[in-house]
Amino acid sequence: MADFPRSPASGIKVIIVGAGFAGISAAIECDRKGHSVVLLEKSEAIEEITRFGDIISFDPNGARNFERWPGVIEAMQKVARQTSWLDLYHWKGEFVTRQSFAEEKKWGPRINGHRGELYSIIYQHARDRGINIQLGQRVTDYFEDEEKAGVVVNGQYMTADVVIAAEGVRSRGRKIVLGFDDRPKSSGYAVYRAWFPGDVIAKNEMLKHLVVNGDTHSGWLGPDLHFLASSLKGGKEFNWVFTHIDDGNIEESWQFPGKVEECLKYVEGWAPIVREIVKSTPKTGRLIDHKLVFRDPLPTFISPKSRIALIGDAAHPFLPTSIQGASQSIEDGVVLAACLELAGRSNVTLAVNAFEKIRYERVHKAQAMGVKTREKWHKANWDAIKEKPEEIHLTREAWLLNFDAEADCYERYNDVVADLKGVKARL
Ligand SMILES: Cc1cc2nc3c(=O)[nH]c(=O)nc-3n(C[C@H](O)[C@H](O)[C@H](O)COP(=O)(O)OP(=O)(O)OC[C@H]3O[C@@H](n4cnc5c(N)ncnc54)[C@H](O)[C@@H]3O)c2cc1C
């Protein structure tokens, strides 16, 4: 096991359910803070996690945490998109504005890359740390009392001081936190997404400028739909995604193979370049129709006895236009691990309450930003944008992006705990 910097052993035992970005990052953070971790994942093999998905984004508030995991950010930067701008176009094809992200460099790294590749880097780091990751472990129930929390996995009971439920948008952990089984619902939107080699684009006269001069990042915005395309690894790989209104049923599955002909119906009358990008998608390229599942904001992220905490999409699914789903899921693990460190083993329930208090408002403010951007893009007032093109830029605010979740937690923890104790004393 490689010798990574760690806080002294805390004696706190943590079970984490789900090894998506939220769960695996929480496991690494708990290990950094000296807690003892078991990570349970239902997938039998790691390829089951890495083979799904395509482009995923970590903004500076998320990606800066990877800098604390030796070697991880460097490995990610090698496979990430090398652009610091987004070119935005009217849906009929007219160029509108280039939004630069260069100023954000001082806030921390931005990482945009293939979900599977970036995940594999984190997974390898967790393995190198010697974290106890158990695959093929499907958790079927949660329980807690005053002294401990636990899970039922493959018919066996397993207990710890605290359980972190990171099972994504279809979480079972929500039931114990909420006291009832709420069902995920359709957000009313779906995303078509594709990823394939850039040489297909390089051979096409109309499209080749998107790959032959290195990485690019472009967006076409129209009524109820936005279309984003980008190239990575110097143009060797290419991807496009478009979010559109969809009233499909999400009960049984939310990932379906997509069809080029179906996609083209949504972009009827759009700029020829957009239609040409879709038409160029090779049959062997991964084209997915991804239904966006949503949940109403939860009244709480923690269980009645404060020994089980929901993190990541289990607590708060995000819309893609927020570009924050993955980053917020990393922040969750950072804060929870730090709160446990500061509280110590005899105060685990206080730590879990402090985690919720620190995270709750910030997460919901970030979620609201995603809705704002979608509305701005899908219902654009083009007359106003002609006068002021930057009106159409993604909203990029320092409170959200120039933020160090660990430093903030260390700074605020004592005040938050004093507040929590004050509330208890008044009851
Ligand atoms: C298939 C898929 C593809 C995605 N693709 C993209 C993409 O291309 N771009 C993008 O921006 N976002 C994508 N996302 C969303 C993004 O990964 C998340 O928003 C974000 O990373 C937060 O992840 P999470 O760890 O909370 O949840 P998830 O990524 O959903 O991870 C949850 C994990 O928990 C495991 N699990 C679930 N139930 C149990 C159980 N009972 N017992 C044990 N383990 C369990 C799951 O197998 C999974 O590994 C995708 C999500 C999924 C599920």
From TrEMBL:
Q: Which GO terms describe its molecular function?
A: FAD binding; monooxygenase activity
Q: Where is the secretion signal located?
A: none
Ranges of residues in domain FAD-binding = 13-176
What species is this protein from? Answer: Melanomma pulvis-pyrius CBS 109.77
Its protein name is FAD/NAD(P)-binding domain-containing protein
Q: Per the similarity annotation, which family is this?
A: Belongs to the paxM FAD-dependent monooxygenase family.
Q: Which UniProt keywords apply?
A: FAD, Flavoprotein, Monooxygenase, Oxidoreductase
Q: Which domain of life is it from?
A: Eukaryota
